[in-house]
Hints:
Order of helices and strands: HEEHE
Distance between the termini: 44 Å
Shape: globular
CATH architecture: 2-Layer Sandwich
Mean pLDDT: 94
Largest sheet: 3 strands, mixed
Amino acid sequence: MTTLTKREREKEAVHELEDLIRREVPGASVNVVKGSEPPGTYLEVSEVTRDYDELFDVVMSVVRQPLSRMQNEERLRIYVMPLHAA
Length: 86
């Protein structure tokens, strides 16, 4: 069994979250960026056919448990931010 580095695990975790989001919100745009407040990797999620509140509820219901595990147990600095579509 191969042990992943923290960076490799973070990349894998980002892909896991992206897959979960895209399965539930197929039309979602997911932009992965580095942020500084707090420092970490941010998944910015937008989707043009849903209003913000609906998008927020759907996305957070899908990622809440795995994201919590990633942040609390694995100490990964990954954040999900539903955004208004431009």
